[in-house]
Amino acid sequence: MKKIVALVVSLALLLSVQTAALAHSGRTDANGGHNCSEKSKQKGLCTGYHYHNSGTTNSGSKSTSTKSSSTSTTKSASTKSSTNSKKTTPNKGYTTVDITLIVNSSIVPLDQKAVIVNGTVLIPLKNMFDALGATLEWDQSTKKITAYKGNTTVELTVDSTAARKQDKALTLQAKPIVINGYTMVPARFAAESFDAVVEWDSQSSTITITTP
Fold first, then answer.
1. Do 58 and 112 fall into the same domain?
2. Is the pTM of this model over 0.70?
3. How far apart are the two ends of the chain, measured CA to CA in Å?
4. How far is Cα 158 from Cα 177, in angstroms, rounded to an integer?
5. CA 185, 190, 193: angle at the middle one, nearest 5?
6. Are residues 199 and 104 in the same domain?
7. Distance of alpha carbon 11 from alpha carbon 71, whole angstroms
8. Signal peptide span per the entry (predicted)?
9. Each residue's pLDDT tens digit, 130-186
10. Same-domain check for residues 100 and 193
């Protein structure tokens, strides 16, 4: 009885080895696959060219995908960096400063903070000429400012360094500009045009004007 059992076990092992051999007969190529043998086809073990090492193919695919993703990310980051580097901050051409304006011992509130352009302090047109007691005229078409006081007439033009006092042509160190809807004019020029005395205290950033 024991001999019969041993014989059955031996036959089973032999059949298992033969089946495995038939299923994987022939050598695999560099890609890990090979053509199915005629015996394997007859036994229904395979139908044609097939692989035995699918893991390698998947790994290669995964590696390619990772590389592609990495390249795409690098390219995207490079493009973003290039775009950001082109970004620039507009140059306003002036520096805002806190200035105290005193005319005839009275502090004059400013509607817009003073600015410095080319070393020249500009303050709001209306605040300045009102404090000096001058009358203003504004020509929208030419952007020309005309100020009158007594027998003196002063003319300025926005965005131009050309100015006039009476019939005399003058050149400003800084042109009048518009900031937040306020026309800004050179403080010293405006005051001295009407024969006022101008003093500048750099320690306290104070302009003191005394009219005749």
1. no
2. no
3. 141
4. 6
5. 150
6. yes
7. 57
8. 1-23
9. 999 999 999 999 999 999 999 999 999 999 999 999 989 999 999 999 999 999 999
10. yes
